[in-house]
Write a sequence for this structure.
């Protein structure tokens, strides 16, 4: 099962890092974990190499458009699950099981 996760970063790197950490701590690891920067202030320096940063958007026009932007930047063939989350989400380690 191929799982691709998109996280929308908006202005709080601590929240984004906790969200990413909770996803990378899964017993079943996501295949791709993308961070979409919707506020131009996320450097991603503390992210794992398993995370694909997506370049900052020119302007913030909401969650849905940011997710569509992220999807257009990643190859999704043979993907079973797409997960779209805000950066304030955290997940138990069995979430993807």
């Amino acid at each position: 099962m191929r799982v691709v996760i998109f996280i929308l970063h908006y202005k709080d790197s601590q929240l984004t890092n906790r969200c990413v950490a909770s996803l990378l701590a899964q017993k079943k690891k996501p295949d791709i974990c993308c961070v979409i920067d919707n506020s131009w202030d996320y450097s991603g320096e503390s992210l794992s190499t398993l995370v694909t940063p997506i370049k900052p958007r020119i302007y913030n026009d909401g969650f849905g458009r940011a997710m569509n932007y992220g999807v257009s930047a990643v190859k999704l063939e043979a993907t079973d699950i797409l997960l779209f989350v805000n950066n304030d989400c955290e997940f138990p380690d069995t979430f993807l099981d």
Notes: The chain has two helices and four strands.
